[in-house]
């Protein structure tokens, strides 16, 4: 844990996006992003339905930013390694 919930979401989804790009390289990045964003929103919605946890739009936003960051960082690393 980083000590801040939003950074945990960002880092977690950055890693998930990078792994998705590596694991399914033929699937377009935008489809993977939509899938991760949908998954994150579903988890937040279900979490809010428990009665003892809260759904937060900030978490969904942090997930989305993390997913974008992970895909961009992986692609940047790939380009640097090709040189």
Provide a compact summary of the structure.
With 83 residues, this protein is mainly α.
Description:
With 83 residues, the protein is mainly alpha-helical. It has helices spanning 5-23, 29-48, 57-82. The longest helix is centred in the C-terminal third of the chain and has 26 residues, at 57-82. The protein is elongated and about 50 Å long. The relative contact order is 0.21. The model has no long low-confidence stretch (mean pLDDT 96).
Topology overview:
Elements: H1 5-23, H2 29-48, H3 57-82
Helix pairs in contact: 1-2, 1-3, 2-3
Looking at this protein, list some descriptive labels:
mainly alpha; 83 residues
What pattern of helices and strands is seen along the backbone? HHH
Largest sheet: none
Average of per-residue pLDDT values? 96
Low-confidence stretches: none
């Amino acid at each position: 844990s980083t000590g801040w919930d939003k950074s945990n979401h960002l880092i977690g989804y950055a890693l998930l996006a990078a792994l998705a790009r590596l694991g399914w390289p033929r699937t377009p990045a935008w489809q993977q992003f939509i899938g991760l964003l949908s998954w994150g929103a579903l988890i937040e919605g279900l979490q809010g339905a428990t009665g003892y946890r809260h759904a937060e739009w900030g978490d969904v936003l942090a997930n989305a930013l993390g997913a974008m960051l992970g895909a961009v960082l992986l692609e940047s690393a790939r380009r640097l390694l090709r040189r």
